[in-house]
């Protein structure tokens, strides 16, 4: 009898070990929930390429961590907030993913945040920008590798904040544009420049004649201006910079300014030599081994340099792998503990998840546009790197 009990115990222990080994071998499932189709399709493609390259880089090409494969499941929000919510719930519930990454649109991201809270699983936001994502709408399951509106705004305010500058703004009339201008206004108020007018236009605007006239009129009326500028904050199609340039702002004594963008959009910058602004990323600016690898491998695979959102996607992929290294269980609470305050290397250098709101603190780059006839876009030449400690990024959540 004693022998039978011992044999049964040994068998049970062996089965338990086998079950544990089988569970350990199961892949970590990551959902990439993003707008593969729609106006931001170019952004989405870059983001996904970057995500996969980030996982590849940080796993040394194995696409596995802790002896487990990383499986990425793609879901297309089509830039529809309700669909984004549904797909994220599907990923957490039906697919039982460890965590999710995305989306592209701020509007979709804001719709998805409550789903992360409901399922108590992490949503790593990349590249949606609106401050409210890690501000008023934030919950503890939300992290973001993408820059926020305040980081965009503060870096651009530094670039445009000289005494005597009068600035009017043009932005899209939705969360990205509204949050971005609010943050820019707050940041510019701390400089010697002044904001004189805000103009908002629908995201699908094609004719900028009427908005431009209102901007020109407002700058005409502004007093004490040594220099007049229109700062454009725009994502996706429409080419507002090109349309404004065609209206000959120089004849009104007005210069154009903007932040960085994808390379295709920066083709319009060729008409704006000397334009100032600040950018999240341009492949020639950061000098570090991660960016060196990204540039070399991307050019080898795609015969083109990595773009604005490729770098962001790669940062997200690296963050996922590093978090799983620190929290092999993949349990949400373990991941939150590991990720709060976590520093990780990216194509931009060090990023750090701030404990208070899970926003990734990171460098930004003030630039001036140079034109090279051999290059298809205006080249942002580094004027100054704004490092983590150079920018006082407000904490806007209610934690």
UniProtKB/TrEMBL annotation:
Gene3D superfamilies the UniProt entry points to: 3.40.50.2300
UniProt KW keywords: Amino-acid transport, Signal, Transport
Any matching Pfam family: Peripla_BP_6
This protein's record includes keyword Signal: yes
BP-aspect Gene Ontology terms: amino acid transport
Domain Leucine-binding protein: 27-370
Top-rank lineage group of the source organism: Bacteria
Keyword Signal: yes
CDD domains: PBP1_SBP-like
Range of residues in the leader sequence: 1-24
Family: Belongs to the leucine-binding protein family.
Protein name according to UniProt: Amino acid/amide ABC transporter substrate-binding protein, HAAT family
Organism name: Tistlia consotensis USBA 355
